[in-house]
Amino acid sequence: MDNTSSSTTTSSMQGASSPMGSSIGSNGAAGSPQNMVERVAQTAHETVDRVAAAARPAIERLTNGASTARETLQSKADQLGALEEQWIASARTYVRDHPFTAITIAALAGLIIGRLGGGRSE
After folding, report:
1. More confident: 98 or 33
2. Residues 1-40, buried b or exposed e (16+ Cβ, 10 A)?
3. Rounded to two decimals, what is the model's pTM?
4. FRET label pair with 1: which of 10, 15, 45, 68, CA 20 to 30 Å apart?
5. CB 24 within 8 A of CB 30
């Protein structure tokens, strides 16, 4: 093999810096473990801040979407509640106006439900 490529690689590696900064001081000695921990902690804090900043718009969109969905569901629930009240009022009026017809309808409905549900077992 060629020794020139090996020496070029070695010299370029010595000049390269890690993502967390160089741990070699001005005198060529390795930095203290405390300095390294501080640099790693600082890098971690910066990364968390970047991720949080990137996630914030998505979280706001989800919050707004959930709020809109909640308002829509509440509106539909109110509409269904009003519709239920109308049906109950209509049924009460019908029973007051036609009591014998209402009793006949209720008896027939009970008979049909009894036949469908229970039936005779012989």
Report:
1. 98
2. eeeeeeeeeeeeeeeeeeeeeeeeeeeeeeeeeeeeeebe
3. 0.43
4. 15
5. yes
